Structures are given as structure tokens and as C-alpha cells.
Amino acid sequence: MDERPDALVNQPREIEAVSKERLAPQAPPRTWRAERICSAINQNPAATLASLIAFYLVIACAQAATKLLWTDELITLAIARQGSFQGIWRALAAGADPNPPLSHWLVLESTRAFGQSALAIRLPAILCVLLAIVCLWAILRRWVEPAYAAVGILAFMATRGFDYAYDARSYAPLMGCAMASLALWLIACDHAETPRDWPPQNLARIAALTGMAAALALGLSSNYYGVLAFFPIAAGEILRTARLRRLEPGTWFAMAAGALPLLAFRPLIRHNLAEFAPHAWNRAHLDMISSTYLELVEGVFWPVLGLALYSAWRHRRALTAESRSSLQPHESIALVLLLLYPILGYLIALAGHGMISPRCVVPVCCGFGIATALLARRVFASSAGAGVILLGIALVWVTARESACALILAQQRTAFFALRSDVARLPATQPIVVADSLFVLPLAHYSSEDVRARIVFPIDFDAIHAYERDDSGEQNLWAGRAGGLFPMRIVPNAPSTSPTLTVIARPNGWLVHTLAGEGYHLDESSPDPAWQNLGGVFTPMAHEDTRLLTARR
User: Model pTM?
Assistant: First the structure.
């Protein structure tokens, strides 16, 4: 008979049950699944990059196909329609656009190959930002894994600078060329020559420096603020020279070659200064710096600032092996200069012509993409699956933002065509007097031939200077008047003899004041909320207070 206590009798059974429970298969924790996803991304960088490219192209092409062409793009298109590089140069020399010729020539070639659709007109911009994304990937892969590189790409796509991927102006080439020159300079640094190796025998370095020179030259040929791309490279090269204690002249020769287009553009620059600088819309103001970071970089600015402050606080005592940056000093200084584009651009504007806007320093958005990836990896690298979580957040952010942009563009499109219909129903015997330089070109472009023939754009520079903030749009259109560049009549303003006029103008603008002085009484024909929806993301179809008015004596 077994007289052991029940606890001792049951102990082997309890041990056996616990052992079976421990050996039973368990569902993997979430962090483990996230690690598997992260590992799959990191082990397939080509597939990750291809997915990002596909995601980008779907968004950019969809937006480009539906967004209305606005005034600046229609100026680009009108100049491109001159049909040759010589014709483009003549239009720019006359002052029809204060930009170098590259973006106009790209639109010319694209429309020759693919027609006159909005997507064809914007295709060069889409490809230039694609170049910027590929170069961003190449730059980021020097320092971070594919998952964090993807976070950096998506962070760039979450900025307002991404909107210029589907805008047929000079800002997409500006981004593409700036990132290409930086990426090629970093490759050239990896293949530095030895002190006695000049001229260099390293073919990879020669190719990288040649490409860098071409990228710098093309950036200057698209926008004069392409000169900013020289600063990160020059600062990084100066630091490399100081650390290596020897001069590597190849980079400096390449930068000198990249600056050569400025010699050819000097006549255009002088003409632009004389024409636009006295009453420019984009005169240099100190608040341009803050508006660039807060409105152009947009919501990405705050997470990057927060990550930077947290990282600095976390590693405030010492640079441990874990916290030390993977960037070389010359790479770090180049990134810092890229992030300081708005300040550098503002200083250049003050020293030169005094004209600048946030879009002129749009490559800073690429810099914030790089900073996001580097800081995120530094802060979250020790957390299992953090890269996947950040990647998911970034995907949702970009998708939500572009969905909101698509809604705004759809509202803008609906509003514009509603107003165009209102204008088309006006009496056929009346001219349509349009005094809004933002509205007149889209109205002429999207109207029928009959309506277009009735559109008149009057200009009185003395009155404009008395009542308006700037005359930049009028200067563009007036410069294209002699060559018939634009599809409507552009005339000097003269007193009207008609008892009734249909006027599209700003209620406090120069034309309303002029007509009031001639004895006209102006009424808003039909207040329409559609005017409020003509704004856009740096691409408005009209000034905010423009209205359809009736002028009667």
C-alpha cells in the first residue's frame, strides 16, 4: 500500500503536463513575423526597388493624366511648340519664361514622340523624378538596409516636393540632376586616385566624374538654382582634401565643366533680371526659409526633427560603437548642405537678383528623405521589425496624401470646367476681357476656337504697378505677344467704348480700378463657389479673389 502524500503521487503527472505544454508548437510572436518580412525585404533589394518604382509610376502617371495644365506648364508648352532648340532659345531671349531651355526642350521631344496629352507633356518630369528616386536609393544603400532605404524613398514621396513629379516645369529635372550629381560624386570618392595617379587611370572614377559634370550642367540648364547642387559636393571635397592632405583635382575639373552652361546663359540671365526683378512675385524674403521647411517638406519635417532631437539626447554622453554614424565626414557635410538648401538659396538670392521661391530649392525634399532613413535606422535598429512598421506607416502616409491630392485636383478640374461653361454661355457678341494672368492661359487652352477668339488679355504696366503686388505673369505674356506665342489676343489696355463688358478680374485689381475711372459700374455676375476650388498645391488655376464681373456704364 502506497502511503505517500497525494502531492508526491501526482508530481510526475504534473511535470509531464508542463513538459508537453512547453513542447507544443506556439504561434510566432508578431515581432518574429515582422522580422521575417524585414529579412525578406533586405534579402531582395532589387525586388524592393522595383516595387517602389512601380508604386511611384502608378501615382505619378495617374495624377499627371488627370491634373489640368496650369499657367506655368502652358508657358512651357507654348515655348516647346516653337519646334526647335533655336525657336525655344528665341522665346526665352525675348523673356517669355525666366528659365533655361532644358525643360522646354524635353517637353518638345516628348510631345513629338507621344502627342499632346497631359501625360505626354509631363512625362519628362515623371522620368526626372524617377531618376531622383533611383539615385536616392543608391545613396541610401551605402549606409542602410533596403527596408530603411525604402522608408527614405517613401518619406520623400510624402513631401510636397513630390508633387513636381507631375508638373511640366524645371523642378523635376532640378531634383533628378541634383541627386544624380551627388550619387556620382560619392561613387567617384569610392574610387579615389593615389597621389601619383594623375591623370587618373581608374575608369570607374573617370566615368563617375564625367557623369557628375553632365548632371551638374543639365541641372543648371533646367533651372538657374541648379547651382546649389555644387555646394554639397564642394564642401565634401574640401573636407576630403583636408583629411587626406592631398588635392584630387578630378572633382574640381568636373565641377568647372559642369558650370560651363552659365557662360552661354549670361544673356538670358541679364534679360531676366531686367524684366522680372523690379516687380517679381518671388522676391527674396526671410520667411521663404521657414515656408520651405514647413510647406514644401511638409509633414515629414516634424518627424525628422523629432528623431534628430531624440537621437541627440539618447547619445548625448558618448559616441558608442552603436550610436556612431556610418557616414564618412565628407558624406555627412554633403548631406548637411543638402538640408540647408533653403538657407543657401536665400543667400544667393540676396547676393544676386533677389528672386526665389520654395520650389527653387525643391531638392531639399530628397535630403529629408535621406535624413529620415538614417535617423530612423539609428533610433530603431535595435527594435525587432521596426523597419517594417515604419515602412507600413510610410506607405499609408503616401497613399493617404496622394489620395487627398487627387481629391483636390478633381475638385479643381470640376470647378474649372464649370466656370469655363459659364464663360462659353456669355453673349457671342461680347469680348471676354481677362485680367488674371493665372486664369487666361488655361481658359484659352481648354476653350473652343470660338471662345478663344473672343478672349482679350489687356496689359497696362503703370496701372498694374499701382494696384497689384507683381507683374511677373504679365511680363511673361507680353514677351510672347510679338511672336504670337500664346493662343489669345494680348493687347495694351485702352479706354473702352462698349456700354457693357464681361470681365474676369480681381475685384481690387488694376483693371477694375481703371474701368471705374472710366465710368463703369461693376457687378459680380453670378457668385460661384467654384472659384474657391481653383487653388492647388503650388499650381493654382486663378488668383484667389478672381471673379466673373459685368461692367456697365
Answer: 0.90
